Amino acid sequence: MMAPSLYASLLGGWMVLALTAVLVTGGALALRGLLAVLLLVLCGMGSGPSPDMARILTGCGPALALCVWVFGPRRGDGVTPREREVLPFFLSGIAVLANAFGRCDLLGAFLGCGLVARLGLAIGPRGLERDGWQALRMGLGGLLVAQGGLFMLQAGWGHVQDQAGAILLVGGLLLACGVPGRAGLVAPGWNMEILAVLPVLAQAARTWPVLLPALTFMGCVCLAWAVLSRQGRSFPAGYWAGWAVLAAGLPGGAMGGLPLAACLLVMACITPWGGRLSGSMLWPPSLPGMAVVLVLVGEMGEIPPVALLAGASLWPVMAARMGAGHDRSEWGQASLLLAIGCMVLACAAYYQMGNGW
Amino acid sequence: MLVLLFGVLVILSLSTSGGRGGGPVWHGACMAACVCLSRWTQGQVGPACVMAVGLAGLLGVLGAQMLHIPAAGRERSGLRLAGGLACIAVLAQAVMQGPQVDMTARLMGMTGLSAILCGVWGACIARGPVALCAGLACGLDGVMLLAARADSMLVMAEVIMAAIGLNILLATHPRSHGGAA
After folding, report:
1. Alpha carbon distance A133, A140 (integer Å)
2. pLDDT tens across A54-104, in order?
3. Alpha-carbon gap: B163 to the closest alpha carbon of chain A (Å)
4. Is residue B181 a part of any domain in this protein?
5. Range of the domain at B42
6. Hey, where are the domains in chain A?
7. Residues A105, B154: contact at Cβ < 8 Å?
8. Which of residues 145-204 of A touch B (CB under 8 A)?
9. What's the number of domains chain B is made of?
10. What ipTM does the predicted assembly reach?
11. Averaged over B51-56, what is the pLDDT?
């Protein structure tokens, strides 16, 4: 376990190094892969031998998302401007930093940096484009609302006021992350903010327990939004965001934040353009179903068969992936999901043994 | 009492002007006066006052820029007014409950929160960039009020940065008549 200041300065050094290297050399695949793996290793070492396995998994989320983006399939003609290549590196570095600090009042500053980077890329010869204005509306508006809610929580005026503040804080942060519907503007690094925000919120819920019902409520709202939105515009990440918010609202039991870590890891691994959403994603024996079962695992940490059920529910996803096509990247993604599921299950089993014996 | 008066002024003037140049200037001036007065009554006139006045100046520049950009066709001010009033009603219910100890602090908090919610509401239903920026400027006023109440320099600096960013964005927006592009 490194000291937090050393970790933060190492991360800052990584960000400067990555931005300079990619901007100057144009970013060959080997260089970008090396930088992404370096960040992953750094994340793993930073939260390394800490007793909480779920913390490590959560902390590695942004770095894993960066790895998936770097090694994933290129979309479109493959010619992207150099600045657009840099954006995921910058966003993931910021997300890891926000995770490392883990303070709610610094989230505004970090998310603001990300928003500035996005807006700076969206400025064209005719001013901001339409997507840019939309990002500004959602990002800055959400940050303002979240800041107001945070002030209300810090003032500590009473229970009802704290509830209002918690709803404002959670809703504003989710709006700033673009969770309800960013289907139109899927950019590289689209999931970095939510990967940083949810662990910090789950950590802040220890200080303000009133955040937990607010998180559950907003998770249900996100799920309803994803289900009720039109079929053509929805994409699976919306479901996973809803599940992750729900998992963040769980009271911390014996399993720690394991359900949240599982949902965040899956969010880090899926790519938004992986194809249209099939109806089977909605029902329990599938990928979101695994989240339900993991939530059950988190709730009832003493029952091993539930963990086995979670493993079994992974199978239909594999079957659907196999039937979908013979694309190599699809296979890679499916096996990555399977590996992560096994890792989470191994963690669960480890906790069981640790608790039982 | 003056602080209360100015708080009510800000609330009343929140939703009335949508997308025109005068609105941000008026709100910014009200906010700066509110912050400075509350600081003055506490007897600590410091950097918070300077930052509030600076934000008012930046919002004034924003309003001057808006005068040069024609506003979008439909501003839907009626809807904005209704939404803003609903926000204020809800917040008044939530914040004003409990023992009425420090009325001034609570009213300042409510004013800031209603400014934020009205501004974001206005920005959410705005069509054109000008109305969007006006709504967000309104929200910045609210955050500045709350930050002055909570004495947090970090948030004040962020608000100033955001106002500068809004100015830059609106300056890059092309103008259809007069002015350089």
Report:
1. 10
2. 778 788 888 888 888 887 766 554 556 666 778 888 899 999 998 888 888
3. 11
4. no
5. 2-172
6. 4-356
7. yes
8. 145, 147-148, 151-152, 154-155, 157-158, 160-161, 164, 168
9. 1
10. 0.76
11. 82
